[in-house]
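Notes from the 1:1 (GR / supervisor)

We went over the backlog. Supervisor wanted to see one worked example end to end before approving the batch request, so GR pasted a single chain during the call. The sequence is below; no edits were made to it. Supervisor asked that the structure be written out right there so they could see what the output format looks like.
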Amino acid sequence: MQATDGSSARGFYIGLAIGQIWLSVISTTFVSILWSFGQNPMQPCFWSTH
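Structure output shown during the call:
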């Protein structure tokens, strides 16, 4: 009984950790995309002069 309880708790914590990692990855990607869009107004000038 204890073993199964521990394994289920472990699986729950692993799922929680994976969820946290996914959340941080998605938020980082979202922020970087937003940042690149924020920087975009300067990019066309740079590319057109190049």
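Supervisor's comment: The mean pLDDT is 80.
Batch request approved.
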